[in-house]
Amino acid sequence: MKTLFALGLCLSLSALAASHKVLTVTSDRDKDVTTLTIDTNGNGEATSLKVTTSGNGILVNTTTFTMDQARQGRAILFKADKHEVIRLGLEERFENIYGGPVKLDYLVNGIVGSRKTIALEAVREGDRWVVKSNGKTVTNAFVKINKVLGKAVGVSKITF
Q1: d(CA 22, CA 55)
Q2: Rounded CA gap, 7 and 119, in Å?
Q3: What's the 3-state SS for 35-60?
Q4: What average pLDDT does range 118-129 have in this prediction?
Q5: How far is Cα 158 from Cα 150, in angstroms, rounded to an integer?
Q6: CB of 38 within 8 A of CB of 26?
Q7: pTM value?
Q8: 131: closest CA among 148, 144, 114, 118?
Q9: Tens digit of pLDDT for each residue in 70-92?
């Protein structure tokens, strides 16, 4: 009986482990679609971030970042040549069980190295995770490319 109970408990906890698609990102540079997913364990706690990019329905790249990498601002959403164009960082107050503040840091001009930051929040709402901008849940982001003489040098703005 104890074995049956333990097996049932393990199965019910593992059923809570999930992947939560929280943000879909597109841009005016190409037709690629990038999806940000938060993976959770059986307790619903965030365990990793996954960035998946596809173009024309074909998988281009998938990268998984640990929560420690994200805390250090090393979760790269977009990279071009040697430049980290858009990166995500969890703020110090972020908790894996409840969520918290997140910063989206992006390269405005790769020629001079200027960057800007957007404050977001990733939060757990019941059994799902969401991203909020200015208190409102967002599911899509659009990246407008900054161009100089027709060449992409960074990001002009990101809208939700």
Answers
A1: 19
A2: 42
A3: EEEEEECCCCCEEEEEEEEEECCEEE
A4: 96
A5: 19
A6: no
A7: 0.84
A8: 118
A9: 999 999 999 988 899 999 999 99
